């Protein structure tokens, strides 16, 4: 494969570049992306063709491969190690309690703090200690795209900053709230690492009691969000938008909460990803009228 060497942070700027071969995926190594080049255009290197991986699905967070769901076999773990050469492989069986603490099994190597790069942003975290919603890449990018400069945004379940940082980078002023102290500390350090700390007000605690004033946009990235709507509905105005995450449709619960708050609004539902057989991770965009 003919490829050009591009710093990872410059990858988004290549959208629409005539020389990029979009039938192939870039190969990312460290802070560098090797971008496939169409025939007839100059390239920096000829890379060997990569063998397509057909094993068990995983997410690579920094240099740690993370699996979810059922226990892994030795062959599955070995295939992952051969494919991406991680420092460690862990399986997260579940996220426990309101602080979303991972229940972790180390399958290979070691875990610990790592640096993950995604869509031009830097996230420092330990995936064995805190949640990282890597499967929501499109939704993170959408939040950045829909946020207007100067908007006041509440991120009620901010975690390590996976929504907060892209939104702040787009010019939003984010009130980022997180209950888990470890995740909160990563949220603070990641805001600094991405140079958005002046547009992020981070608080550690229950977001339902920390909300203040009126928000243009409220991000509720928690599957229990439909049951927590009463709190943010007290801090919106006509034109405010709430992004309510759920497993399966939550439209009926949202309409009931709107009625109880004496409000009206429109609901636009989106599927994010398959959560389980017959169940989808959904986001309902609720615009207050």
UniProtKB/TrEMBL annotation:
Gene3D superfamilies: Vaccinia Virus protein VP39. Transmembrane segments: none annotated. Keywords: Methyltransferase, S-adenosyl-L-methionine, Transferase, tRNA processing. The keyword Cytoplasm does not apply. One of its GO terms (molecular function) is tRNA methyltransferase activity. GO terms for biological process: tRNA methylation. It comes from the Archaea. One of its GO terms (cellular component) is cytoplasm. Residues 58-289 form the SAM-dependent methyltransferase TRM5/TYW2-type domain. PANTHER family: TRNA METHYLTRANSFERASE (PTHR23245). This is Methyltransferase. It comes from Methanoculleus taiwanensis.
């Amino acid at each position: 494969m003919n490829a050009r060497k591009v710093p990872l942070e410059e990858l988004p700027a290549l959208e629409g570049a005539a020389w990029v071969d979009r039938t192939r995926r870039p190969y990312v190594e460290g802070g560098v992306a090797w971008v496939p080049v169409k025939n007839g255009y100059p390239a920096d290197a000829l890379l060997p063709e990569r063998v397509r991986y057909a094993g068990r699905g995983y997410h690579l967070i920094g240099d740690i491969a993370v699996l979810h769901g059922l226990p892994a076999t030795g062959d599955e773990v070995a295939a992952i190690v051969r494919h991406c050469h991680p420092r460690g492989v862990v399986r997260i069986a579940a996220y426990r309690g309101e602080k979303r603490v991972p229940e972790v099994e180390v399958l290979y190597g070691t875990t610990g703090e790592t640096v993950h790069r995604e869509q031009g942003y830097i996230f420092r975290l330990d995936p064995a200690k805190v949640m990282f919603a890597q499967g929501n890449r499109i939704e993170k990018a959408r939040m950045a795209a829909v946020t207007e400069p100067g908007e006041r945004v509440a991120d009620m379940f901010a975690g390590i900053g996976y929504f907060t940082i892209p939104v702040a980078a787009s010019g939003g002023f984010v009130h980022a709230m997180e209950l888990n102290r470890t995740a909160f500390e990563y949220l603070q350090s990641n805001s600094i690492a991405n140079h958005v700390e002046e547009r992020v007000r981070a608080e550690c605690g229950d977001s339902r009691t920390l909300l203040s004033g009126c928000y243009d946009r409220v991000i509720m990235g928690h599957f229990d969000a439909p049951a927590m709507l009463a709190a943010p509905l007290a801090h919106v105005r006509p034109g405010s938008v709430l992004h309510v995450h759920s497993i399966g449709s939550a439209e009926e619960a949202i309409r009931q909460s709107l009625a109880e708050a004496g409000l009206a609004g429109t609901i636009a539902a989106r599927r994010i990803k398959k959560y389980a057989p017959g169940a989808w991770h959904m986001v309902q965009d609720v615009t207050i009228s």
